[in-house]
What does this fold into?
Amino acid sequence: MERKVLLVTGGSRGIGAAICLRAAQQGYDIAINYQSREADALETLRAVQELGARGMVVQGDVSVEADVTRIFETVDSSLGAVTHLVNNAGITGPRTRLDQADTATLRRTLEINVLGAMLCARAAVMRMSTVHGGTGGAIVNISSAAATLGSPGDYVWYAASKAALESFTLGLAREVALEGIRVNAVAPGFIATEMSGPERLAQVVPTVPMRRAGSSDEVAAAVMFLLSEESAYTTGITLRVAGGR
Ligand code: NAP
It folds into this structure.
């Protein structure tokens, strides 16, 4: 049987690392991408290998085309062509109103969250699509509940970037539906990671119907469903994992 090769962008920590660990338990070979924190990536690789999976780390900024080319080519030669992709790398920028945000924050957020996901998805389609000689595959984009909440006062640009990611998910899913590729998104709510920050917990939890933060592993479970053949007839959706929020 053909091996399943999963690339997780920003797989070094947080939600991405949880996805790598679940995938390791389910027989995927795993390429862990990171941008700057190599030690975290190597720690996740160690955990993946302890679970008996084949893995590798690959540095690269998903918003830089040359890096994305290098990331995919490195995976090609180490594990084989990517058959599954999770576009997880993302940033919010500092929490402020729009009128206090600088242009660099807006640009960087859109470049990583939107352009980065598109560059990686394009490289993946070139390998997965039956039109390009591939055997199919699955892509999951990590959106956010912010896409439909708007995040006023926090980071409206981030919310907008995730809304863009969701319409990209729908459009690409329909574009490649006959080429063996499914494309879906997962929209987490408030998940306890470095990005969400412990200081916001008390502020956000009262607005969550379940009155608690989610865990990275709860997000990873939804991602694994959408990557797997258990969701064979599901494409173009956004699955919300947000405790009712
Ligand atoms: P996190 O803990 O801040 O981790 C971010 C990951 O992305 C790290 O592995 C980081 O690599 C990587 N990364 C950042 N910029 C990158 C770039 N330009 N190229 C490649 N990798 C890059 O974040 P998280 O909370 O796990 O969030 C993961 C995803 O879930 C994001 O898309 C986020 O928007 C989404 N999300 C999170 C929450 C939440 O509450 N945490 C809620 C909704 C959605 P380094 O370690 O090298 O810096």
Remarks:
- Residues 114 and 165 are 6 Å apart (CA to CA).
